[in-house]
């Protein structure tokens, strides 16, 4: 009792409080017990305003601080996006510029006129695409790549950084230090398979079943575009993604670096001129060589040439396309080609032992395209080409497009500014993308729509995510109908 009484004399609570009970203590209750005790504002809860009572502004700001910050940022982003969209619509088309006849599909005016470089144009798309949410859709599309991949209208390679390159990096033979040929992969096939299984488990792909699950990772990548300048940007991004697979320039010896005196051949031709022409073909960046000589860049190994002669469908320099770059002994290729007329077949790649060449498959497992149907002269023909090269049944075609939206007032604005927008950006943004795809489904044998969605509600339904496949049963039935119709006629 002495200890309890001592506590009561010093402070705040009487000694008669029973143990085991809970009391809510405030400075007012303590003041009634001890008149000399000063009130403590920390123990005095602020009276809460009732439902009908007005709350002070400072209290509201303190309560909803996070919500106000999020709302303010969202409003700022929306205002910036709407301002950018309206300013882009209001720009007048540049007089004196028309669609370049040498370019079968639309290209931005700034690139056609040489006002900016392809690198600058690619950099300018970062902020608008992030603002509109396109960047997240590109990440999703890159994550869906598997097996042998074809990207149509690859442009500046804005999907490259989101593709899983682990399989290509781990299995491809590395270039020899001398710069000629390839060194065999030091790991055996069993070790490569164990690494592949380990990667799948680490990435959460264990038990994941997808169409064509026999090829869960990217085996090869083929990019096609009509412009060499944008392909050069893609090439630089691929070099950063797979630096070990890029052949390094061999240092010249003293004898090679010394200039030689020009000599005359028996036919009177200048050997120095021939050497200068050869030098142009050995520029380190194959896209620069292509732009300088208008000839295809030399293939890195015989597998690329075998792909050309194996099926008789590979485009050539004088025909439908040019092999502009080759990385990883055939695993990564870039073609300068018009995708509407011809798409290259999958590659035959060099095996990890650097001695044997793996046979080229007939079809791609994944076909991608971003914002291409809006700029192609004949989008249905392009869909037919993509259906021709994708694997029937398990293969998938993924499209990210923009076109007509949900609301008439949006479509009216798109129609009004469509000519000027095409003149500047090379894109007809008022096309009925869903209608084009539905018509192609009825006309192209086997083509089937898996899904058509319109993500990004802020775009008013103008953004399309489309997944297609080729149904082999429908393809066969349609071919039989054509044969019957031909025989009856």
TrEMBL record:
<protein>
    <recommendedName>
        <fullName>Methyltransferase type 11 domain-containing protein</fullName>
    </recommendedName>
</protein>
<feature type="compositionally biased region" description="Low complexity">
    <location>
        <begin position="291"/>
        <end position="307"/>
    </location>
</feature>
<dbReference type="InterPro" id="IPR013216">
    <property type="entry name" value="Methyltransf_11"/>
</dbReference>
<feature type="compositionally biased region" description="Low complexity">
    <location>
        <begin position="259"/>
        <end position="269"/>
    </location>
</feature>
<feature type="compositionally biased region" description="Basic and acidic residues">
    <location>
        <begin position="41"/>
        <end position="54"/>
    </location>
</feature>
<keyword id="KW-0812">Transmembrane</keyword>
<feature type="domain" description="Methyltransferase type 11">
    <location>
        <begin position="336"/>
        <end position="393"/>
    </location>
</feature>
<keyword id="KW-0472">Membrane</keyword>
<dbReference type="Pfam" id="PF08241">
    <property type="entry name" value="Methyltransf_11"/>
</dbReference>
<feature type="region of interest" description="Disordered">
    <location>
        <begin position="30"/>
        <end position="54"/>
    </location>
</feature>
<keyword id="KW-1133">Transmembrane helix</keyword>
<feature type="region of interest" description="Disordered">
    <location>
        <begin position="244"/>
        <end position="274"/>
    </location>
</feature>
<dbReference type="GO" id="GO:0008757">
    <property type="term" value="F:S-adenosylmethionine-dependent methyltransferase activity"/>
</dbReference>
<dbReference type="InterPro" id="IPR029063">
    <property type="entry name" value="SAM-dependent_MTases_sf"/>
</dbReference>
<feature type="transmembrane region" description="Helical">
    <location>
        <begin position="68"/>
        <end position="90"/>
    </location>
</feature>
<dbReference type="InterPro" id="IPR050508">
    <property type="entry name" value="Methyltransf_Superfamily"/>
</dbReference>
<feature type="region of interest" description="Disordered">
    <location>
        <begin position="291"/>
        <end position="322"/>
    </location>
</feature>
């Amino acid at each position: 009792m002495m200890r309890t009484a001592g506590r009561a004399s010093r402070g705040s609570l009487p000694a008669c409080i029973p143990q085991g009970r809970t009391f809510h203590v405030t400075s007012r209750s303590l003041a009634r017990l001890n008149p000399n005790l000063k009130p403590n504002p920390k123990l005095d809860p602020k009276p809460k305003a009732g439902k009908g009572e007005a709350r002070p502004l400072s209290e509201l700001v303190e309560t909803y601080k996070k919500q106000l910050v999020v709302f303010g940022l969202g409003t700022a982003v929306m205002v910036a996006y709407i301002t950018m969209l309206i300013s882009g619509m209001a720009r007048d088309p540049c007089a004196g510029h028309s669609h370049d006849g040498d370019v079968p599909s639309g290209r931005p005016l700034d690139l056609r006129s040489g006002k900016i470089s392809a690198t600058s144009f690619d950099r300018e798309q970062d902020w608008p695409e992030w603002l509109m949410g396109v960047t997240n859709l590109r990440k999703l599309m890159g994550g869906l790549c598997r097996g042998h991949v074809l990207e149509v209208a690859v442009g500046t390679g804005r999907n490259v950084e989101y593709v899983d390159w682990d399989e290509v990096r781990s299995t491809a033979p590395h270039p020899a230090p001398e710069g000629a040929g390839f060194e065999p992969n030091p790991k055996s096939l069993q070790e490569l398979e164990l690494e592949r299984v380990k990667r799948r488990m680490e990435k959460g792909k264990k038990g994941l079943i997808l169409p064509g699950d026999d090829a869960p990772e990217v085996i090869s990548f083929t990019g096609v575009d009509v412009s060499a300048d944008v392909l050069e940007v893609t090439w630089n991004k691929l070099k950063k993604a797979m630096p070990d697979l890029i052949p390094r320039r061999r240092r010249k010896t003293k004898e090679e670096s010394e200039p030689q005196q020009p000599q005359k051949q028996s036919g009177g031709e200048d050997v120095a001129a021939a050497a200068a022409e050869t030098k142009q073909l050995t520029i380190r960046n194959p896209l620069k060589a292509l732009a300088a000589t208008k000839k295809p860049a030399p293939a890195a190994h015989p597998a690329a040439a075998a792909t050309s002669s194996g099926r008789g469908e590979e485009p050539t320099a004088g025909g439908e396309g040019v092999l502009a770059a080759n990385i990883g002994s055939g695993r990564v290729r870039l073609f300068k080609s018009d995708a509407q007329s011809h798409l290259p077949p999958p590659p035959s790649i060099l095996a990890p032992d650097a001695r044997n060449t793996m046979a080229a498959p007939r079809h791609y497992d994944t076909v991608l395209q971003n914002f291409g149907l809006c700029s192609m002269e004949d989008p249905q023909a392009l869909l037919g080409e993509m259906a021709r090269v994708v694997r029937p049944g398990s293969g998938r075609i993924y499209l990210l497009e923009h076109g007509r939206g949900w609301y008439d007032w949006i479509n009216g604005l798109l129609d009004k500014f469509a000519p000027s927008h095409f003149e500047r950006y090379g894109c007809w943004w008022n096309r009925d993308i869903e209608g084009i795809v539905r018509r192609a489904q009825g006309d192209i044998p086997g083509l089937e729509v898996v899904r058509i969605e319109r993500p990004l509600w802020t775009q008013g339904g103008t953004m399309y995510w489309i997944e297609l496949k080729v149904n082999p049963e429908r393809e066969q039935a349609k071919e039989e109908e054509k044969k019957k119709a031909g025989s009856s006629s």
